[in-house]
Fold this sequence. Notes:
Layout: E1 13-18, E2 24-29, E3 38-42, H1 53-59, E4 64-68, H2 83-86, H3 89-107, E5 112-117, H4 119-129, E6 139-142, H5 155-170, E7 175-176, H6 179-186, H7 197-206, E8 208-212, E9 215-218, H8 222-234, E10 248-252, H9 262-273, E11 278-281, H10 289-292, H11 294-307
Parallel strand pairs: 3-4, 3-5, 5-6, 6-10, 10-11
Antiparallel strand pairs: 1-2, 2-4, 7-9, 8-9
Helix pairs in contact: 3-4, 5-8, 6-7
Amino acid sequence: MTEPLFRSLPTAEAFTVSARDGARLPVYALGGPPRAPTVLFAHANGFAAGSYEPWLRALARDLRVFAYDARGHGGALWPEGPLDVVFHVDRFADDLAEVADACLARLGGAPLHYCGHSLGAAAAMRLLSRGGTPPWARVILCEPPVFPPRTSPHYAGALPEQRSLIARSAARRSRWASPAALAAALNGRGPFARFRPEMLEAHCRATLRPQSEGDYALACPPAVESVIFASHRDADTWQHLGAVQGPILLVSGDPSLADAGWIATVLPDMTAAIPGARLQVLAGAGHLMIFEQPERCRMLVLEEIGRGA
């Protein structure tokens, strides 16, 4: 592997965390008030830290903010090997532990809080389900895709939806003429119809690596995105939710929306399985809630971290 020139948040201070298997993860320090609480943020599958840049910059008005590109995304590098091994859910949990430790080392003993969205939320849930002391004080997890077991009444409905997602992500178009071309293709389509314009633009800039003039490739290759979705489906995280420790706020999109997915449906049961967890539903928001209602999500994070102050 060689060090990439691409960074999903090119204007932020960055450092690199090396994972146990050799993956290299860019971690971005977005600043914030010197004595403010600190939060580490992790992104969704197929996205990147820079996809959330306007929201992260707004969050940094009140908090010190770290974010990182997960393996398979943004400016991250990952080792060769079978995709289902390199991108297994445990690798994301391992990476998160390494990144959290690196951020804590920079804080010199000050507490760290955590906010994860989708893949980033699932990585935290996997890490916490393995037991041990959490590396952060408070946790906000936005729709973690922890797949229900066969014994769950939600399993039969979730399975075909996840199969479709796995197939569609594998077939995703991987090359574009520019970030603007990708934004034009996504604008008004499906869940992207609820995106704030500045969030859609940031997402398209952060997820396309320039190859040559007029040629951009998805930083998260379709085969990688697809195998990550499959890894969520096949994981047994749900069966270990009782081992999760620490104050956790689970955030759900609106299950009454026409395009609400299986995660919003199962979140009440998931919350009930985690000791001390709480659930908050965002009316009118879908799975990509931070892109749809960024100010509401910013206030939610500030309020939750303030609870532990």
